[in-house]
Amino acid sequence: MTGNIRKLSLKWVAVELLVMALIGLVFGFLGPFGTYAMPVALRLAYWVGFILIGYAIFRPISISAGWLRESIVMPFWAAELMATAIAALPLTFLIGFAMSGMRYDPSFLGNRFLILYLQCAVIGFGIFLFMRLLFGPDGTDMESDPLPQQKPSAIEPESNGIEPVKTKLHDRLPLGFSAAIIALGVEDHYVRVHSAERPEMLLMRLSDAIREMEPLEGMQVHRSWWVARDAIIGSKREGRNLRLSLFGGLEVPVSRAYVTKVKQSGWI
Taking the model in full, what pTM does it have? Predict the structure, then answer.
């Protein structure tokens, strides 16, 4: 499974890098923020280079902001704005260092730094919005009603008491993955498919994965989680936070927006 995850990760990084390079070319041809006076070749190299460097800085910080958002239930846009504000800082220093002839220039740390910082932050957040529109929100902000209960088609019995149900999503999983799916979780642009025995990663949106879970009865309980009803063995509260306990030891958070729906469905 590790090799499969690495392959998918490299594929997605390659796609994003290609999009970043194209964005850099667009900025290079337009020449915003006073760069149009540069020679064309230098201008293109400047924008493509710094957009790619910006990606290398912004992407890990954005992922970390996503983890923080899930840990403390931070609003999505607040987390992304925080990530942008943090990531724009080192990028501003790098660009300023290059603009100063690859040397330290104390005079740069005044208004010029602030203006460049704001430009980096605006461009960074704008690219984030563009990528979100281009590739979708990974199902993290969608609302989903419980899937209708239908007569399941069994695969083979399991020792944990869950009867495996053949779903459309099984067709995307590796051969031999006949286990009962107990939950789906979002990890960046991937969906981690959980069974009681092992997980698998798929490059797709959560909303698309949920649509392929029929006829297995389940519900989205969090912007990043879907669970199968038969997999729930209990629930517990940690302060104001509610978590569902599933077969295999997995615990899934229930966001406040979904608590009422989960209770009304009689799941807890």
Answer: 0.52
Distance (Å, rounded) from C-alpha 131 to C-alpha 158? Answer: 41
Residue type at position 37: A
**Distance separating alpha carbons of residues 169 and 181, to the nearest angstrom:** 9
Q: Is the dihedral of CA 80, 86, 89, 95 positive or negative?
A: negative
Closest listed residue to residue 186, CA positions, set 222, 225, 131, 137 = 225
- How far apart CA 106 and CA 11 sit, in angstroms, is 42
How far apart are alpha carbons 59 and 11 in whole angstroms?
A: 15
Give Cα separations from 10 to 13, 15, 119, 134 (angstroms).
5, 9, 30, 19
Residue 138 · residue 205 · CB < 8 Å: yes
Q: What is the pLDDT of residues 12-45, one digit of tens each?
A: 788 889 999 999 999 999 988 888 888 999 999 9
Positive or negative torsion for Cα 151, 154, 157, 159: negative
Evaluate whether 69 touches 79 at the Cβ level (below 8 Å).
yes
Segment (H or E) for 251: strand 251-254
Alpha-carbon torsion (84, 19, 206, 61), positive or negative: negative
- Is the preceding peptide bond at 146 cis, omega within 30 degrees of 0? no
Q: Who has greater pLDDT, 150 or 99? A: 99
159-to-165, 180, 228, 236, 247 alpha-carbon distances in Å: 14, 11, 17, 25, 11
249 within 8 A of 236, measured Cβ to Cβ: no
